[in-house]
Amino acid sequence: QVQLVESGGGLVQPGGSLRLSCAASGRTFSDFNMGWYRQAPGKGREFVAISGYLGTTLYSASSNGRFTISRDNATNTLYLQMNNLNHGDTANYYCKEQQNWGQGTQVTVSS
Predict the structure, then answer these.
(1) What are residue 34's DSSP bridge partners?
(2) 18-61 pLDDT, tens per residue?
(3) What is the 3-state secondary structure (H, E, C) of the chain?
């Protein structure tokens, strides 16, 4: 059974940084794309970034240039380094692989 567990969220001031992690288990994730999504209060879930199994990456317009997605296939861990955070980044951040989702980790940007 596939399991995704996110961590690393928290409260950060505008302009600050956070690094999210997603620990995956249940199969060999090096063969699959994995991504980050987020959902802000009162809004739908939106795409943030994806790490392709062939090494490609893709970012949303809002995350491009500030966020970096990476993965460690040896430990089945997906990361999201987030820099220069702003209030608009406040959301619950989810890891996704195929049709599987983690439970999310909350990121709050506030002064």
Answers:
(1) 51, 97
(2) 999 999 999 878 889 999 999 999 999 999 999 999 989 999 99
(3) CCEEEEECCEEECCCCCEEEEEEEECCCHHHCCEEEEEECCCCCEEEEEEECCCCCEEECCCCCCCEEEEEECCCCEEEEEECCCCHHHCEEEEEEECCEECCCEEEEECC
pLDDT score for 28:
79
Phi–psi pair at 7, nearest 5 degrees: -155, 170
Torsion angle (degrees, nearest 10) of CA 64, 105, 98, 68: 20
